[in-house]
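dumping this here before i forget
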Amino acid sequence: MKQTALLVAAALLLTLCLSAASYFVCANHSYTIGYSDLQIDEYHLEGNTFTIKVSADLDGEYLYKVIATQNGEPGELELTFRGGKQPSLAQTLDKAEATFEIEVPAGTTRIVCDDMTVYTID
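structure:
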């Protein structure tokens, strides 16, 4: 009888741990938000700093960060916006709007997102 109680307690504890781990993974998961799901409110280049203010068009989506990488095309800087459904990870709490500052490397002529031109540098 004691073994059965211990097995049931162990099974419940294991279930609780698996549920908590699943929630943690889902709650902290971020994904790429495509250009078509973004609304670019403002942008400007000052020196080598590109400032962009964007909001997500998807209901319940929050913007977490932007990743800027050289995408292999000469002179192009690719922006990848990351977000998800957790307001606690958002740049601005309880808002799907965010302002990002990106350092633009020398020689960059175009800033793109999903192969769409966001900004052309003269």
